[in-house]
Amino acid sequence: MAWANGQFATFLILCPTSFFLGILFSLFPYDYPLLWTAAAPPPDYYTTLETHLRFIHASPPIIPRILHIVIFVGLLGFVLKLYKPSESNMLFDGASLVLYMCGVIVYVSNIVKGLRVVQGGVYGVGELVEGETIVGRGGGGKGGGQGEGEAIGREDSLRVLAASNTILALVLVGVLVLQAGQWYAERKEAQEMEKMRREREERVAGGGGRNNGTHRSPVGKKKQ
Questions:
Q1: CA distances in angstroms from 147 to 34, 122, 143, 157, 207, listed in the order given
Q2: Which residues, listed in sequence order, are joined to residue 151 by a DSSP beta bridge?
Q3: How many CA atoms lie within 13 A of 175 on its CB side?
Q4: 37: alpha, beta or left? (left if phi > 0; alpha if psi -120 to 50)
Q5: Sign of torsion, CA 42 47 51 52?
Q6: SS3 string of the chain?
Q7: Which pLDDT value is given to residue 195?
Q8: What contacts 127, CB < 8 A, 6 or more positions away?
Q9: What is the model's pLDDT at position 211?
């Protein structure tokens, strides 16, 4: 059964991971000018990026609910694979679960809070939830007015959000690599076990033939 050998649980892990990687890939064109090129972004780049992020944050409630359901589907897959775990499960699935939880932490601590800051539009000192604040650099710098502090905080906040997307993508790729490594290790182990089984059957067959030959000779002598 698929439940017994972990194939269904692996399916529950790979689908959410690939789903999140697809979302992050769709955000890559927006993150690229901030992190992966030395050229200055276009003049209207930050405004376009903020509009895009605000649109994401203001999406209907069904969108984040689906996202959270997919997150818990991945966790369910890990629970199924780590129930009565083997040595392979403890090594590969345990490390995959650690990476997956790191991705959840990055999502909650950086991405969600970053979207709230962008939605509020206040980057110097922005109140988030229940009195929590983010203090941007340059707010109290020498000769730096409020406008300058907000400009620096704006760029830094958007850059941190883009870097969080990259970190999350690397973490999820690590989950896929570990799951692929587990599949390869189990496949090689199955091949070795099959090879040993065939060699054992060949030895038994060869030994049985010799035993039958030595057993028939006394019978033949008796008949004579």
A1: 21, 11, 11, 15, 90
A2: none
A3: 30
A4: beta
A5: positive
A6: CHHHHCHHHHHHHHHHHHHHHHHHHHHHHHHHHHHCCCCCCCCCHHHHHHHHHHHHHCCCCHHHHHHHHHHHHHHHHHHHHCCCCCHHHHHHHHHHHHHHHHHHHHHHHHHHHHHHHHHHCCCCEEECCCCCEEECCCCCCCCCCHHHHHHHHHHHHHHHHHHHHHHHHHHHHHHHHHHHHHHHHHHHHHHHHHHHHHHHHHHHHHHHHHHHHHHHHHHHHHHC
A7: 87
A8: 120, 133
A9: 58
Q: Give the distance, in angstroms, between the CA of residue 218 and the centroid of all CA atoms in the same chain.
A: 70
Q: For residue 214, what pLDDT is reported?
A: 54
Dihedral pair phi/psi, residue 125, rounded to 5°: -130, 105
Query: Cα–Cα distances in Å, from 187 out to 13, 34, 82, 178?
Result: 19, 42, 19, 14
Among candidates 48, 195, 172, 168, which has minimal Cα distance to 108? Answer: 168
Q: Which residues contact 100 (CB under 8 A, 6 or more apart)?
A: 13, 17, 74, 75, 78, 171, 172, 175
For residue 76, which amino acid is it? L
Q: What does R_g of the chain's alpha carbons equal in angstroms?
A: 30
- Per-10-residue mean pLDDT of the chain, 224 residues long, equals 65 95 94 89 89 93 95 94 81 92 94 90 60 45 42 78 95 95 87 87 74 53 48
Task: Find, among 117, 116, 114, 136, the residue nearest to 125 by Cα.
Answer: 136
Residue in 131, 120, 130 with CA at minimum distance from that of residue 153: 120
